[in-house]
Prior knowledge:
By secondary structure, this protein is mainly beta. It is 12% helix and 41% strand.
Amino acid sequence: GVSRTTIYRYLLEMNEDGQGLSYDGETIETREMNMENSYLSPAKIVGNIPCGEATSEDEYVEGYINLPASIFGRGEFYVLRARGDSMVDAGIDEGDLVVIRKQQTATEGDIVVALDGENRNTLKRLGGFDDDGNVILEYMNHEVYPDKIITVKDLIVQGVAEHVIKKL
């Protein structure tokens, strides 16, 4: 029961008042819905990642998930289910889904999917290098594993953890 002219005037006023609405005469966008947060990054859920000692794991696709760019950013991602308790100080608990940005580089302090020279992988904090040039992977559960680390000579970074999805 409202005329088009009245609706048009309201749209223009809301746009001018900065009320979270953008109207260019053809397209209406709100803060809640714009091009950036309608973009989705598809990601595979590819199984478990041990959060303790490095072990061999087979990759298998459990399912797919669409990650909104407004929360996760844009890029190539995959998702792993955390197994173990060695990353609880980093907020990663048994059964959490860890969103991994696929990349081969990382900086000290990043939580990485680490593949060692024997094709075993683990999720650990990248701690830098020791005096012999070995890569240090740090446990992040100081109550259970105080000062425990893994050192590896050859390390391949398969991705960097960026987000954790938890079940409440």
